[in-house]
Design goal:
Strand content: 35-45%
Structural class: alpha+beta
Radius of gyration: 16 Å
Helix content: 10-25%
Distance between the termini: 20 Å
Number of domains: 1
Largest sheet: 6 strands, antiparallel
Order of helices and strands: HEHHEEHEEEHEEEEE
Shape: globular
Length: 201
């Protein structure tokens, strides 16, 4: 699946099990448990829109599953989001080695610890497709061009689209449409919440 729900939305990103798979083991955090339940509802064909609160989205991002995914695939840790209409404001830390690949001689020296990152990300989803576009961002307090941040962060994410039994993998490209996860037709970001729209049966 392409996150992000990424994010984050996970949707990065939201719902990492394929149809037929079991849901993750019940988490200790009630918010996380309620959020996973909603994700599996819509992925299993629940016909009504599903509303996730900002707190539930952040609980998902702090889950074992998505923490590992974001760390391994995007070099992001300590991710927290604020939801606005059509936009996600993301804070966390990014692996300094990710920056080295795109900043060249201006990159942090080897051994530099993860750096604070603040991003404003536009997330859209309709008709079974979604787009993720970095609008602006800073790393360690320094503003960087959105395309540089996109290469460092989104370049490591590998999306997963499902076509029957086949799965097609490919990098997420900023602003380029990608298929939403099974069962999801659209995503509507609001202030403090996100509405997941179900696909037609």
């Amino acid at each position: 699946m392409r996150p992000l729900l990424l994010l984050l939305a996970a949707a990065p990103l939201l719902g990492t099990a394929a149809p037929g798979q079991q849901s993750p083991a019940p988490p200790g955090d009630p918010l996380e448990g309620a959020a996973w339940l909603k994700i599996f509802q819509i992925r299993s064909g629940f016909p009504e829109p599903v509303l996730l609160s900002e707190a539930e989205v952040n609980a998902l991002l702090g889950s074992v599953q998505l923490t590992a995914f974001l760390t391994e695939q995007a070099g992001l840790t300590g991710v927290h989001v604020r939801l606005l209409p059509g936009e996600v404001q993301l804070t966390g830390r990014v692996d300094a080695e990710r920056l080295g690949a795109v900043l060249g001689p201006f990159a942090p020296p080897p051994g530099t610890p993860p750096q604070p990152v603040d991003l404003a990300v536009e997330v859209q989803g309709a008709g079974g497709s979604g787009t993720v576009t970095i609008l602006r961002g800073t790393v360690a307090g320094m503003e960087l061009p959105p395309d540089v941040i996109a290469q460092a962060v989104l370049g490591g994410l590998v999306g997963l689209s499902e076509a029957g039994r086949e799965r097609v993998r490919g990098p997420i490209l900023a602003g380029e449409p990608f298929p939403l996860p099974t069962g999801l037709a659209g995503i509507e970001l609001r202030a403090g919440e996100v509405l997941l729209l179900p696909a037609s049966p």
